[in-house]
Specification:
This protein has 500 residues and is of the alpha/beta class. The protein is 33% helix and 20% strand. The protein has a five-stranded mixed sheet.
C-alpha cells in the first residue's frame, strides 16, 4: 500500500498589522479610510498567494479582514423621519462590513452624511471579525495562472479563508435577522461577503462589470427590446450622447459619447446568460437594460444580485397574455397589483405579504405612456389598462384543466399573465428597491387570439420601439426626482437598517 504523506500542521496565522479603530466626523474621511484599509488587506492576500506559488512557507495560514463602519447612538430623540433611511430606529451600536468601497463611494458618502446629520454622532472605521475570502480579494478580471495553484502543495482552504455560505444569507433584508445580545445590530441590508458573492455573479451572468451598472434598471424578457435599446443607444452616442456619457455592451465594450463603436471592437465569443447593456451617466445616473430571458427563476436570480448595488428603481418591460376580451394586441398593462404563482420567493417572502403599487413609479409610467403615444384622459384608457398582473411558473398553463387556473385568474381580477413581473416586483419590495411593471399584450390565449405567421414580426417592429421609448422616458422622469422622494417609506419594516 502506498504510504500517504500528510502536510505539516499549520503553525500560525499571518495577518497584516492590526488596524487601529478611528473615529470620523466627516463622511469623506471615513470613506477614504475604508478604501485604504480594504486596498491594504486585499493586496496582502494577493501577495501571499503569489508568494506561495514562488515557494513560500506553506505551513502558515493567511488571513485579512473586511473593513467595518459603525455608529453608536444613545438618545431616543426624534429625527426627521420623512426620509425612509438615514437614521437608526433606537439607541445602540450599529455596524456593517464593507467591500469594494471605491465602487460604492457615492452610496457610502450619502448614507454616512445622513446618519451624521440626523444623529449628530461620528462614525468609526475598524477591521471587522469577518475574514475576506481569497476568491474575493482578486481584482476584477484577474486571470489566476493555474500553475500557481499546482505549485501549492496544500489545499487552498488550509491556507486562506474561502467563501462561507453562512455569511451570504438574506436574513437582514428578509426581516428575519435576530440580534445576539451584546453584539452590534446591522447598519446595512447586506454584509460584505453577500455583496461580493453577488458582484461576482453579476459579472458572470451579464458579461459586464458591476461598475457599469446604473441606478435605473430595465428588465425585459425579449431580445427584441435589447436590439432596439442598442439601436437607440448607438444613435445617441454618435450624436453626442444627449446627456449620457457612454454605452457599454457585454464584454465591457465601451462606446463614449460622440463616437461610434469601432468595427474591430472585441466582443464575447458568445452572449452571456443575461445580456446586459448600460447607457451611463455620472454617478451611475443612467439606465441599465437586462434581458433576463423567460421565467421566474431567472427574474429572481438577477434581482437577487442587482439589489446589492442599491439601485434607485427597476422596471419590467415585456410581453404578456391579455386576459380580457376587451384588450387588443399591442395594448399596455400597468400593474397595480400582483398574483404570485411563481413560487420562487415563497421561502423568502410569504405569498400573504401584499406587494403595494408605488405612486411615484405608477405616475411616471402613466405620464410616459401619455407623452409617447400622444393620448390622454379617456383616449389613453383605450390602449392602457391598470390592473392586476398574474405571474405563473408554468409556461404551458393553457394545457391544464381550465377550471383551475382560469377560475383563479378571474377571481383575482387579473388582466394579464406573464412569468416574471410579480417576481421582480416582490424582490423589489423585499430589497427596498422601488419597482414597477408596464407590459404589452402580445396574445390572448383565453380568447383564441394568437399571432399568425408573419403577424409576429410586424407586431414587434411596430410595438417594441414605442414600448421601449416609454420605459426610457419613465426612467428619466424617475431620475429627475429627489432620491428621498423616490425611496418610499412603504418599503420599510418596523426595525430597519439606517443604510438604504
Amino acid at each position: 500500500m502506498e504510504k500517504r504523506i500528510y502536510p505539516e500542521p499549520i503553525e500560525s496565522v499571518v495577518s497584516p498589522e492590526p488596524y487601529k479603530r478611528q473615529s470620523f466626523t466627516d463622511a469623506e474621511s471615513a470613506v477614504e479610510a475604508l478604501k485604504q484599509l480594504y486596498a491594504r488587506n486585499t493586496q496582502f492576500l494577493r501577495d501571499c498567494f503569489e508568494a506561495l506559488g514562488d515557494g513560500a512557507d506553506p505551513a502558515k495560514r493567511y488571513r485579512a479582514f473586511y473593513p467595518e463602519v459603525g455608529v453608536t447612538t444613545s438618545s431616543y430623540s426624534q429625527v426627521d423621519s420623512r426620509q425612509a433611511y438615514g437614521h437608526m430606529p433606537t439607541p445602540g451600536t450599529f455596524s456593517t462590513t464593507i467591500t469594494q468601497p471605491a465602487l460604492f463611494e457615492s452610496y457610502l458618502l450619502e448614507q454616512l452624511k445622513l446618519i451624521m446629520r440626523n444623529h449628530g454622532v461620528p462614525v468609526t472605521v475598524a477591521e471587522s471579525r469577518t475574514p475576506i475570502p481569497l476568491h474575493f480579494a482578486f481584482l476584477e478580471g484577474t486571470h489566476v495562472d493555474g500553475s500557481i495553484a499546482e505549485r501549492i502543495k496544500r489545499p487552498i482552504r488550509d491556507l486562506f479563508d474561502v467563501p462561507d455560505l453562512d455569511g451570504t444569507d438574506d436574513h437582514i433584508a428578509n426581516g428575519t435577522f435576530e440580534a445576539v445580545p451584546g453584539e452590534d445590530r446591522p447598519l446595512a441590508p447586506f454584509t460584505a461577503q453577500r455583496i461580493d458573492y453577488s458582484l461576482h455573479r453579476l459579472s458572470h451572468y451579464t458579461a459586464t462589470s458591476p461598475q457599469h451598472f446604473q441606478n435605473f434598471v430595465l428588465f425585459t424578457n425579449y431580445q427584441f427590446y435589447i436590439d432596439e435599446f442598442c439601436l437607440y443607444a448607438r444613435e445617441l452616442m454618435s450624436n453626442g450622447g444627449a446627456g449620457y456619457s457612454s454605452f457599454v455592451e457585454p464584454g465591457n465594450v465601451v462606446t463614449p459619447a460622440g463616437e461610434e463603436k469601432p468595427a474591430d471592437c472585441p466582443v464575447p465569443s458568445r452572449l452571456p446568460q443575461m445580456p446586459t447593456y448600460h447607457l451611463t451617466k455620472p454617478n451611475h445616473g443612467g439606465i441599465t437594460m437586462v434581458n433576463i430571458g423567460v421565467g421566474p427563476s431567472n427574474a429572481k436570480t438577477i434581482t437577487d444580485h442587482v439589489a446589492v448595488l442599491r439601485p434607485h428603481a427597476w422596471l419590467m418591460l415585456g410581453h404578456c397574455a391579455g386576459l380580457r376580451n376587451t384588450q387588443a394586441l399591442g395594448d399596455y398593462v400597468l400593474a397595480h397589483a400582483y398574483v404570485r404563482e411563481d413560487h420562487v420567493l415563497d421561502d423568502d417572502l410569504p405569498v400573504w405579504v401584499p406587494i403595494p403599487p408605488l405612486a411615484e413609479i405608477q405616475v411616471a409610467l402613466q405620464e410616459a405612456v401619455a407623452e409617447v403615444t400622444g393620448l390622454a384622459g379617456y383616449d389613453l384608457k383605450r390602449i392602457m389598462r391598470t390592473g392586476t398582473v398574474a405571474t405563473i411558473d408554468n409556461r404551458n398553463w393553457e394545457l391544464r384543466d381550465q377550471r383551475g387556473p382560469v377560475q383563479r385568474l378571474s377571481q383575482s381580477r387579473a388582466i394579464a399573465l406573464d412569468m416574471e413581473s410579480a417576481t421582480i416586483a416582490a424582490n423589489g419590495f423585499r430589497f427596498r428597491v422601488p419597482y414597477g411593471t408596464l407590459l404589452c399584450v402580445s396574445d390572448k390565449p383565453l380568447h383564441g387570439e394568437l399571432k399568425l405567421p408573419g403577424m409576429a414580426t410586424e407586431f414587434y417592429k411596430r410595438q417594441v420601439a414605442q414600448h421601449l421609448t416609454i420605459g426610457i422616458r419613465a426612467m428619466e422622469k424617475l431620475a429627475e426626482m429627489p432620491t428621498e422622494r423616490l425611496h418610499s417609506r412603504k418599503l420599510r419594516s418596523f426595525s430597519e437598517t439606517a443604510f438604504q
